[in-house]
Amino acid sequence: MERVINFRAEQLNRPKRNNATQAMEPDDTRSWIRHPDFGPMVRRVRKQRGWTLTQLALRIHCDTGTVGKYERGELPVEYEMACRMADVLHEPKIEEFAAYLVMRQLRSRGPEVA
Fold first, then answer.
1. CA 102, CA 84: separation in Å to the nearest integer?
2. CA 2, CA 25: separation in Å to the nearest integer?
3. pLDDT tens for each residue of 57-112
4. DSSP string, 4-20
5. Which residues pair with 78 in a beta bridge?
6. Which residues 6+ apart lie within 8 Å of 61 measured at CB?
7. Which three-class secondary structure state does DSSP give residue 98?
8. The model's pTM
9. DSSP code for 76
10. Core-most of 12, 21, 81, 95, by most CB within 10 Å?
11. Cα angle 21-87-53, degrees, rounded to a multiple of 5
């Protein structure tokens, strides 16, 4: 329940978009990304492989409806999910998105104390 509450609170604090084709630019402390090209890219790669939404969802351990929302850009992709997609799809651009999110997540944690 706490995760749902935190997720909804985070949604309220997200920057607004002017239109559906404009990418959101979250600050560097967020561990998610919403980019207008990410979802269509995932859909294109999934279809090239001949996979259904259900098949991709099973491979990345996610709900089918959630994968559909990622593909339509209705749900921002968190770094953990982007990494799972990169591992499964082996698409260079998706791997770049995942690497970008991981680096941003690491930067938000600050310097490690030894």
1. 12
2. 26
3. 999 999 999 999 999 989 888 888 988 999 999 989 888 888 888 888 788 776 66
4. HHHHHHHHHTSPP-SST
5. 32
6. 84
7. helix
8. 0.64
9. P
10. 81
11. 60
Scored b (16 or more CB within 10 A) or e, 21-45 reads: eeebebeeebbbbbbeebbebbbeb
Q: Which two tokens stand for residue 69?
A: 């929302």
pLDDT bin (cut points 50, 70, 90) of residue 27 is very low
Per-position DSSP letters for 17-73, written without gaps between them = -SSTTSPP---TT-SEE--TTHHHHHHHHHHHTT--HHHHHHHHT--HHHHHHHHHT
Helix (H, G, I), strand (E, B) or coil at 75: coil
What tokens were used for 48?
């090239």
